[in-house]
Amino acid sequence: MASAIILAAGRGERMRPLTDRLPKPLLSVGGKPLIEWQVGRLAAAGFDDIVVNHSHLGAMVESALGDGARFGVRLRYSPEPVALETAGGVAQALALLDDSPFLVVSGDIHTTFDYATLLPRIDAIGADPSRTAAHFVLVDNPSWHAHGDMGLADGRIVRREPCLTYANIAVFHPALFGEITPGTWLRLFPWAYRFVDEGRVAGEHFRGEWDNLGTPAQLEALDRRLSR
């Protein structure tokens, strides 16, 4: 059984007014909600145990997705009265997962990345977390993030140029989050850079389709592309 967490607790401020009455993960592109694209692709890749965190209008997410049976997966939820950001959200949901490495993806990206390719990465991290405790997927820098986030050298993440953009797709060993007290507000970065500096983070460069939906204009552009 492979596990994944979909981060879906963001308020989606830049998507307003669309997100005033609908949580961002339920905004539709190509005829279905963003989060359904993610759940469907995770299911097809063999990730059959999925946790979704949520906050703003989170009950609507649970109502829309249910228990996951129609996708062929088990879906469980980690509600946050106040959104705890990325690392904080994972730490809050940790009790819903077992002791194996898991995939973390954002609910507001749309991509053709094949999540099944990460299954061997999960096995490798589980076998020797002292050498590799995480694996990050990077993409080419979009126009709105031209300077990127981090580099890639010989299959390892490095903090030097040339930089690529973090794709909001990663595998983590659960022990990394064990030091974070549940309920703590904490962003994944810069917190996770400590493991990069230790040389314990592998990585890859994905060159296929990838969109991070932050504004109504980006949502509309992707919807037009998918609808064609």
Any key phrases for this structure?
7 helices, Spore Coat Polysaccharide Biosynthesis Protein SpsA, Chain A, 228 residues
Topology, element by element:
Layout: E1 2-8, E2 28-29, E3 32-33, H1 34-44, E4 47-54, H2 58-65, E5 74-79, H3 85-93, E6 102-106, E7 109-111, H4 119-127, E8 134-139, E9 151-153, E10 156-158, E11 165-172, H5 188-191, H6 193-197, E12 201-206, E13 210-212, H7 216-227
Parallel strand pairs: 1-4, 1-6, 4-5, 8-12
Antiparallel strand pairs: 2-3, 6-11, 7-13, 8-11, 9-10
Write up this protein.
By secondary structure, the chain is an alpha/beta fold. It has one domain: Spore Coat Polysaccharide Biosynthesis Protein SpsA, Chain A, CATH 3.90.550. It is 25% helix and 27% strand. It has helices spanning 34-44, 58-65, 85-93, 119-127, 188-191, 193-197, 216-227; strands at 2-8, 28-29, 32-33, 47-54, 74-79, 102-106, 109-111, 134-139, 151-153, 156-158, 165-172, 201-206, 210-212. The strands form 4 sheets. The chain has a 7-stranded mixed beta sheet, sandwiched between helices. A two-stranded antiparallel sheet has the order 2-3. A hairpin with a 2-residue loop joins strand 2 and strand 3. The chain is globular and about 45 Å long. The model has no long low-confidence stretch (mean pLDDT 93).
